[in-house]
Amino acid sequence: MGRKWNNIKEKKASKDANTSRIYAKFGVEIYVAAKKGEPDPEANRALKVVLERAKTYNVPKAIIDRALEKAKGSSEETYSELRYEGFGPNGSMVIVDALTNNVNRTAAAVRAVFNKNGGNMGVNGSVAYMFDATAVIGLTGKTVDEAIEILIEADVDVRDVVEEEDAVIVYADPEQFHAIQEAFKNAGVTEFTVAELTMIPQTYVTLEEDSQAQFEKMIDLLEDSEDVQQVYHNVELED
């Protein structure tokens, strides 16, 4: 199940422009999660997940605080949660999750990226059934055996515990996200290298060099879209 999650995260935040864009996306996500319930992470599990994810991307406290204050205030700005599914070359599949205050703008932008880069949009459900919703938690300072022992003692069920890029990565059902973190925090872990709720493909495909270059361009453009929060796909990209 390995995906080298630390490297994936670092690639997303590798450029200054991407870093600032990631921070802006987190600002929106924090605001939306806080508006759904209490702006207190201890009383709002969705907000707590977003804040834990934000920590692993080193989102500045000022951005987090600004989003929370906006949610506490009188702002009535509303966002729609959208999921788009589509296809690329050679059986490649893509899921795009967005938060937007302008549905027409977002739909047109996502469709244009697919159409101009060798892809095409699918209907709802045409791709998602080939992915598994998954919690991914990464940490250092523990071995795989130690991590498994901690999880067993805490009576937390997981799918897999592996070593990837000098970190221990835990894969589990999304419902176990908080339980996994609490188990490790109680065992002395203070920071996580990865804290994600993601969609992992059940199978991967590889692309020829030209197709991969076009596919990577499409993914980059989707991730750069201001309304897109996450992009998932089933292509085994070469470094």
Q: What strand line-up does the widest sheet have? A: 3-1-2-8
CATH architecture designation of the largest domain: 2-Layer Sandwich
Distance between the termini: 18 Å
State the fourth-level CATH superfamily of the largest domain: YebC, transcriptional regulation domain
Q: What is the helix fraction of residues, given as a range?
A: 40-55%
The fraction of residues assigned to DSSP E strands is: 15-25%
CATH fold call of the largest domain: Alpha-Beta Plaits
- As for the number of domains, it is 3
How would you classify the quaternary structure? single chain
DSSP E strands, number: 8
Number of helices: 8
Helix/strand-derived category reads alpha+beta
Enumerate the spans where pLDDT stays under 50 for 5 or more consecutive residues.
Answer: none
SSE pattern: HHHHEEHEEHEEHEHE
Q: How would a textbook summarize the main sheet?
A: 4 strands, antiparallel
Q: What's the gyration radius in Å?
A: 18 Å
What is the global morphology? globular
Mean pLDDT: 92
Which CATH top level class of the largest domain fits?
A: Alpha Beta
Pfam families: TACO1_YebC_N (PF20772), Transcrip_reg (PF01709)
Organism: Cohnella nanjingensis
Subcellular location: Cytoplasm
Protein name: Probable transcriptional regulatory protein H7C19_28875
Describe the structure.
33% of the residues are buried. The chain is α+β, with helices and mostly antiparallel strands and 239 residues long. The protein starts with a helix and ends in a 6-residue tail after the last strand. A hairpin with a 5-residue loop joins strand 1 (80-87) and strand 2 (93-100). It is built from 8 helices and 8 strands; from the N terminus they run H-H-H-H-E-E-H-E-E-H-E-E-H-E-H-E. The strands form 2 sheets. A 4-stranded antiparallel sheet has the order 3-1-2-8. Its main location: cytoplasm. Residues 79-235 form the TACO1/YebC-like second and third domain.
